[in-house]
């Protein structure tokens, strides 16, 4: 029985991305940004959050490489970075595939 770890990418950024995605507010932010570019004010209104809280979540998403920013006058617009979730999706698909073909338990 193989003890290899299923890994589909050279650099495993999945734990960092999963940590960023693990917060319900950040998940909701990405759901909105997947369909349109929004500024902080829009996101605050959509999620009924205060500015400092929103700024924190956006910083986490930006540091994880999930969102891009574009300054527009005194506003900053955010969008989901194209391809940002592709490697993670591949890693998750690899785990799912491995689970389906797993032969069973290892004997002790």
Provide an overview of this structure.
By secondary structure, the protein is an alpha+beta fold. It has helices at residues 14-21, 24-33, 40-47, 51-63, 86-101; strands at 38-39, 67-72, 75-80. A hairpin with a 2-residue loop joins strand 2 (67-72) and strand 3. The longest helix has 16 residues, at 86-101. The radius of gyration is 18 Å and the shape is elongated. The chain starts with 13 loop residues before the first helix and ends in a 7-residue tail after the last helix. The model has no long low-confidence stretch (mean pLDDT 86).
What structural class do the secondary elements suggest?
alpha+beta
- Average pLDDT taken over every residue: 86
Poorly predicted runs are none
**CA-atom Rg in angstroms:** 18 Å
**Quick one: how many beta strands?**
3
* Individual helix count: 5
Biggest beta-sheet profile: 3 strands, antiparallel
Q: Tell me the span between the first and last alpha carbons.
A: 13 Å
Enumerate the strands of the largest sheet in spatial order, edge to edge or round the barrel: 1-3-2
Bulk shape: elongated
Order of helices and strands: HHEHHEEH
| β-sheet strand percentage | 5-15%
Give the % helix: 40-55%
């Amino acid at each position: 029985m193989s003890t290899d770890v299923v890994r589909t990418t050279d650099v495993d950024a999945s734990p960092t991305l999963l940590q960023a995605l693990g917060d319900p507010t950040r998940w909701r932010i990405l759901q909105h940004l997947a369909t349109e570019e929004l500024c902080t004010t829009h996101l605050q209104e959509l999620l009924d959050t205060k500015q400092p809280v929103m700024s924190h979540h956006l910083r986490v998403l930006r540091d994880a490489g999930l969102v891009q920013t574009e300054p527009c006058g005194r506003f900053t617009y955010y969008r989901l970075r194209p391809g940002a979730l592709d490697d993670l999706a591949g890693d998750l698909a690899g785990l799912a595939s491995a689970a389906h073909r797993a032969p069973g338990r290892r004997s002790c």
